[in-house]
Specification:
Elements lengths: L2 H19 L13 E5 L4 H13 L3 E5 L5 H8 L6 E3 L5 E3 L1 H11 L13 H25 L4 H4 L2 H15 L3 H6 L1 H22 L8 H10 L12 H14 L9
Parallel strand pairs: 1-2
Antiparallel strand pairs: 1-3, 3-4
Helix pairs in contact: 2-4, 2-10, 2-11, 5-9, 5-10
């Protein structure tokens, strides 16, 4: 073996280890040959996809996008909302759950998140549970998500976010924050239901599934509510999911 070949193989070995240990930290120039995720770091729907990619250990390049509105999103991704994934063949796809299903189809060597991990009836149940809490959940987390620097420390992003959230939720962010105990009480029974289930199984089912990407991605904003204490079993579950996906969904600071 020549010296050049030996060095080249050594570099490939190091790259392989890095890709598998830190799939979300790849240099931007690597995105030409691999999947790219366009996302907002504070967005629950984007966090679902980050969890799925991390759990499957699919190497990907990240393209964080500023929350400046649909025209800005379109100019970057071709879609008016995120997340958007660009596959190595150049095709792009939106909608978090459709992306996760497509990851199962394209990356057959990775652990599945739908078939074999969760039954149809279980998936229907978790979606019905999520629909029940939707209104109260977003009223709770909308003010808290501004703790992500990419949102709360960007005046243009905050202006668009405030306008969108306050029109949709029919209250100011400050008003929503003041009523957080009311919103939390309204979904406490549903939270307890899922808490008991994940405490029993470890995940929503005995193995990591798409349900865990939805629950953890969508509920992460609750972890930012300083004066609301989540059930310890639910907090432990979030830690298990993040550990399985090799990422943290919480803000990292400025």
């Amino acid at each position: 073996m020549s010296k050049f070949t030996h060095v080249f193989l050594h570099i490939l070995m190091i790259a392989h280890v890095y890709v598998n240990r830190f799939p979300s930290r790849l240099p931007t120039f690597w995105s030409i040959a691999m999947l790219t995720l366009m996302h907002f770091d504070f967005c629950p729907f984007c966090q679902r996809v980050r969890l799925a990619l991390g759990y499957k250990k699919i190497a990907f390049a990240e393209q964080p996008v500023r929350f400046y509105g649909p025209e800005h999103f379109q100019s970057i991704s071709g879609f008016d909302r995120l997340p958007v994934v660009e596959y190595p063949d150049g095709t792009r796809q939106g909608e978090s759950l459709e992306i996760i299903a497509e990851l199962d189809r394209r990356f057959l060597e990775t652990p599945p998140l739908f078939r074999g991990s969760i039954t149809d009836s279980e998936w229907e149940s978790v979606q019905a549970w999520r629909a029940r809490i939707s209104g109260m959940l977003f009223r709770l987390i909308a003010p808290a998500l501004t703790q992500y620097a990419s949102l709360g420390q960007d005046a243009r992003a905050m202006a668009y976010y405030r306008d969108r959230m306050e029109n949709w939720l029919e209250d100011t962010l400050e008003g929503l924050r003041e009523r957080r105990q009311e919103w939390y009480a309204g979904m406490a029974a549903d939270l307890q239901e899922v808490t008991e289930r994940v405490a029993r199984y470890g995940f929503y089912t005995p193995v990591f599934s798409v349900a865990d990407t939805l629950i953890t991605g969508d509920l992460t904003g609750l972890r930012l509510l300083e004066d609301i204490q989540l059930p310890p079993e639910l907090t432990a579950y979030f830690a298990r999911v993040e550990a399985a996906a090799h990422i943290s969904l919480l803000p990292t600071g400025g």
